[in-house]
Amino acid sequence: MDALDGWTRSEHTDDVAGVPTTHPVWRRGSGPGVVVVHELPGLTAGVIRFGEELVAAGYTVVLPHLFGPVGREFGAVDVARVFPRVCVSREFTKIARGETTPVAGWLRSLARELHAELGGPGVGALGMCFTGGFALAMMVDDSTVAPVLCQPAVPFIGLPGRAADLNLSPADADAVRRRAADGCSVLGIRYASDPSIGTRFDTLTSLIGDAFIRVELEGSGHSTVTEHRSQVAVDAVLAFFAERLQHAP
Prior knowledge:
Keywords: Hydrolase. By secondary structure, the chain is an alpha/beta fold. It has 7 helices and 8 strands, in the order E-E-E-H-E-H-H-E-H-E-H-E-H-E-H. It is globular.
């Protein structure tokens, strides 16, 4: 059975670094809107299953497909194939410090469109690993009121200064600070022993203080809501969305 049976496919187009760019978007459910941005190597079966959990909790979930295969279980071979392509793509930053990933503008446009359709206080956004910081960049736009960062791992650690970097330009970091001061909280989830996140959670605490809700899981793992799924993590996401999107599951 196709992992996306029951989901509706459409497309969304907006500029990325000044170039009109179209990506498929899969949608399912009803209720407040949530944009779930998949991790490497693509829109895996694990990401889709997490999306279905949100649908069951009463949300309209959209899954943009930015790169890689669709509907397959996570596999190291797929990671090895997709990673080089992502690394040369103009849509994403990988090692640059103090820069917002170019595809953030496309994702903000998607969130605005969803909010305009569904109304309410705004939409939720969740990124994971390679896309973990994308939800923070989406928060720059008022349409995103519930950003969730699951194990944000970009820019890649290995060169000086990158372990603390939030994948945001200075202007966007200022916008995040202002929105947090106005009451928009940010949820961050990681396994405490996961080295790929570096000190980004400390940076977020310094940037927005108590507006950063920090969940650090015990044990070993990386993908907090998919491949190494933690019920603690999933419950934290559901509670955060329910509060911020004013939704009673």
